[in-house]
Design goal:
Blueprint: H1 14-36, E1 54-56, E2 67-83, E3 87-105, E4 117-131, E5 134-139, E6 146-152, E7 155-160, E8 165-166, H2 167-173, H3 179-182, E9 190-192, E10 196-197, H4 204-208, E11 212-225, E12 229-242, E13 245-258, E14 263-275, E15 283-296, H5 317-320, E16 322-326, E17 330-334, E18 338-343, E19 347-354, E20 357-367, H6 378-389, E21 393-401, E22 413-422, E23 425-435, E24 441-449, H7 459-464, E25 467-469, H8 475-478
Parallel strand pairs: 8-16
Antiparallel strand pairs: 1-9, 2-3, 2-15, 3-4, 4-5, 4-6, 6-7, 10-11, 11-12, 12-13, 13-14, 14-15, 16-17, 17-25, 18-19, 19-20, 20-24, 21-22, 22-23, 23-24
């Protein structure tokens, strides 16, 4: 018997030691006999629970595996268009999308989001969006079909190995519940056939479309397992923000995993979103249905194995730039903090978001053309700026001549910096007039709250330096 705590140790007799030793010897002899006859007479295990079968739902990032993927998207609901300060007008929304591509997984560059990387070659990528009575159609250019997709803390990021994408192309590639993102929802390791789990919170931005998540959770459970496949359901809610707008998302996915071949074969996803109006988009009340099918490629390969060798571990800044065809036959390269807020053949309005906060606006429009080899005079441009600002103007800080392009014989234009008050807020304005030797001209106006100037870092100069003007209208511009 074990002595109580604190009881002093007493010396045992030799007889007691002998009995203990004898019991140990008998026990060892008995065990030896049991082991000797184990093959002939298995020992019963009446008290042991039967072992449950397990299955593994992990898709390894094997670069040699080539999959055919198709995705269809159907969205129904309404757009809540702001009118005035405190009123919105609901407009019916219907959107469809069809995408098809071949893909290879890329090696992870880290854990969690960074483990989800793939290179894709698109065969089809088209969408049609109807708001009220207006329909907009988008497609991925033939010259931009090789895409790298990778997880980041704010969701999936896409860029082309062939050159800069346009903002509408990025929106087209931002498929809700992308199959690459869905892989993050699956449980790691071997799991039993009745397994339930909670995917990591890092998956919420990947599958809901939110840029940032304040709260939310997902729950997963296995519902059916066969000799080759396992069916799982993952569902939950999340609240956060997208494009600076508050949003609440409800998520439900049925996933079919081929556990024999080790890949996600099929997914059916329903996403319901209630989004408030934000600085770059109207409000939304929509339900999106997504169907995804994946299978090993049996026909021609459009994505050769050596493609993985040219996919960077980290994209360069120029690979993440977006391209905008501007009014007045210009082309602008800009970073992804700029978002198109409004665009017509005459004017494009871009807004800059940093960490979900609106920090600046840029209005880009056609300016009157002049005779080839000339430019609007300094005095005339100065008068135009004063007239545009009117009573908001407090001070003209500077008037500068833009640097001459070495390949041109004339100066490229003017920059005017002004300060003033707009709707009670101190503001800085940067007015640019950009000129092409052919006489074609563009005007850019940047509006920045004065309290944000310390973090502005000449962002206006950077974006203007990436603006080009063609001497004659392109075919797309003429259409």
């Amino acid at each position: 018997m074990m002595r109580p705590l604190g009881q002093p140790i007493t010396k045992r007799s030799d007889r007691t030691d002998f009995r203990v030793a004898n019991r140990i010897i008998c026990l060892l002899v008995g065990l030896a006999g049991t082991f000797a006859h184990a093959q002939d007479t298995p020992a019963p295990a009446a008290t042991d629970k039967p072992t449950q079968p397990t299955v593994r739902l992990v898709e390894e990032p094997r670069t040699e595996r080539l999959l055919d993927v198709t995705a269809t998207l159907d969205v129904r609901g309404r757009v809540l268009a702001p009118v005035g300060v405190d009123r919105v007008v609901p407009l019916p929304l219907a959107a469809t999308g069809q995408l098809a591509w071949q893909m290879r997984r890329l090696k992870p560059t880290g854990d969690f989001q960074r483990s989800l990387r793939a290179v894709r070659r698109f065969e089809t990528a088209v969408s049609s969006v109807r708001v009220d009575r207006r329909t907009t159609e988008s497609s991925l250019r033939l010259s931009r079909r090789t895409i790298v997709s990778e997880g980041t803390p704010s969701g999936l990021r896409h860029y082309s190995l062939d050159g800069p994408l346009g903002g509408d192309e990025i929106e087209l590639l931002d498929l809700p519940a992308d199959p690459l993102a869905l892989l993050g929802l699956l449980p790691p390791g071997q799991v039993t056939h009745d397994h339930t789990w909670t995917p990591g919170k890092w998956t919420l931005t990947l599958v809901t479309g939110l840029d940032a998540v304040d709260s939310g959770t997902l729950k997963g459970r296995l519902v059916k397992v066969t000799d080759t496949t396992a069916e799982a359901v993952v569902e939950g809610t999340a609240e956060g923000a997208v494009g600076g707008a508050r949003s609440k998302v409800t998520f439900h996915a049925t996933l079919l995993f081929d556990h024999k071949l080790g890949f996600l074969r099929h997914a059916q996803v329903t996403i319901e979103e209630h989004r408030q109006a934000g600085p770059v988009s109207p409000g939304l009340e929509v339900v999106a249905q997504v169907r995804i099918d994946r299978k090993p490629v049996t026909g021609p390969s459009r994505l050769k194995p050596d493609i993985v060798t040219i996919c960077p571990k980290q994209p360069a800044d120029n690979q993440l730039q977006l391209s905008l065809q501007t009014p007045g036959n210009g082309r602008l390269l800009h970073d992804r903090n700029w978002h198109i807020f409004h665009q017509t053949p005459e004017v494009a309005i871009l807004r800059r978001l940093v960490n979900g906060q609106l920090v600046a606006q840029c209005n880009l429009s056609k300016a009157p053309s002049v005779q080839a080899g000339t430019i609007t005079s300094r005095e005339e441009f100065l008068r135009d700026v004063k007239s545009a600002l009117g009573t908001r103007l407090r001070e003209l800080v500077s008037v500068e001549s833009l640097q001459t392009d070495p390949s041109r014989t004339t100066q490229r234009g003017w920059k005017i910096t002004a300060t003033g008050i707009d709707h009670g807020l101190p503001m800085h304005w940067f007015y640019y007039l950009c000129n092409h030797p052919s006489g074609r001209q563009l005007s850019l106006v940047f509006a920045v709250e004065s309290e944000r100037i310390k973090d502005w870092h000449d962002t206006d100069r950077k974006i203007v330096s990436r603006l080009t003007i063609a001497p004659t209208p392109t075919r797309a511009a003429r259409r």
